[in-house]
Design brief:
It contains 3 helices and 5 strands; from the N terminus they run βαβαββαβ. With about 100 residues, the protein is an alpha+beta fold. The longest helix is centred in the middle third of the chain and has 11 residues.
Length: about 100
């Protein structure tokens, strides 16, 4: 099971509290985690990734183990700490403005 932390607005949309857990079919990658998340919570489709291209939405970032994974390839393996459930995969809405 992969632990996923969502920002407050996506928790509200998905009607969840706290972190969620998803089971991935293949090797744990960003793509597998997000596919499982969207399958379990269809209302999140299109909020984290573009529905057609699968590209990460602007102002959405992915973190794990105090590392920014946002620009890593979607099929790159997740850190071992995330795979074994020690650390969560974090989806974060980035802030912008001045």
């Amino acid at each position: 099971m992969i632990r996923v932390v969502l920002p407050a607005h996506l928790k509200n949309l998905a009607h969840v509290t706290g972190e969620v857990r998803v089971e991935v079919a293949g090797p744990p990658t960003q793509r597998e985690v997000l596919d499982a998340l969207e399958a379990a919570y269809p209302m999140l489709r299109g909020t984290i990734r573009d529905r057609h291209s699968g590209a990460r939405r602007p102002f959405v970032r992915f973190y794990a183990c105090e590392r920014d994974l946002s620009h890593e390839p979607p099929d790159a393996p997740l850190p071992e700490e995330v795979v074994v459930g020690k650390e969560p995969f974090i989806v974060l809405g980035a802030m912008a403005g001045g």
